[in-house]
Amino acid sequence: MILEVAMLHVIPGQEDHFEKDFATAGQYISSINGYIGHSLQKCLEQNNKYILLVHWNKLEDHTVGFRTSAQYLEWKKLLHHYYDPFPVVEHYTMVLDKSKQG
Fold first, then answer.
1. Phi-psi map region of 34: left, alpha, beta (phi>0 left; psi -120 to 50 alpha)
2. Which CATH architecture has domain 2-91?
3. Contacts for 36-44 with beta carbons within 8 Å, 24 or more apart?
4. Bridge partners of 35?
5. Is 80 left (phi over 0), alpha (psi -120 to 50) or beta?
6. pLDDT tens digits for 57-87?
7. Omega into 85 within 30° of 0, i.e. cis?
């Protein structure tokens, strides 16, 4: 499994519109083969900063399957105009996973 990580800086004042459009955009990314799940988290210290986490089966599911798809064009149309600066996207693989259960 691969984790895609993107730090998103949204143009100040556009946060509510971005969150609404992001909820709509979820249908496009979730329809791609190899997609496992995603989450969007908002920074507590900086209102216009978010982190996007997407789990993929393999790297190519994102870099080829999604990025060369018609769904990506719709995702891009909905979201890319909100970013300043444009986000850097990185991919990670698990080294250690430990959590304390309730």
1. left
2. 2-Layer Sandwich (3.30)
3. 36/1, 40/8, 42/15
4. 56
5. alpha
6. 999 999 999 999 999 999 999 999 999 999 9
7. yes
